[in-house]
Design brief:
Elements: H1 2-5, H2 7-25, H3 27-39, H4 45-79
């Protein structure tokens, strides 16, 4: 399928979007979440790392799903 063939391009585009989000639009939210997590004295360093990792993965996954879905929708509209 076309999406599979475009996978390297999709991956690069999603990386760029994700980096833009974390460095611009969502930077303040990310910093606030990490501040709250790091201030929690009941969390170990491993817990902090794991929470940060899950947070970043959730944003990354949302970008990939949204981008791929939009691309599929665009391809389907073009084919009609």
């Amino acid at each position: 399928m076309l999406i599979k063939w475009l996978e390297p391009v999709i991956e690069a585009s999603c990386d760029e979007i994700n980096n833009d989000l974390l460095n611009n639009e969502d930077k303040e939210m990310y910093e606030n979440v990490m501040r709250i997590v790091k201030e929690n004295k009941h969390l170990s360093q491993d817990d902090v790392f794991e929470i940060e990792n899950y947070f970043l993965l959730a944003i990354r996954n949302a970008v990939v799903v949204s981008y791929t879905s939009g691309l599929r929708d665009g391809i389907n509209i073009y084919r009609k």
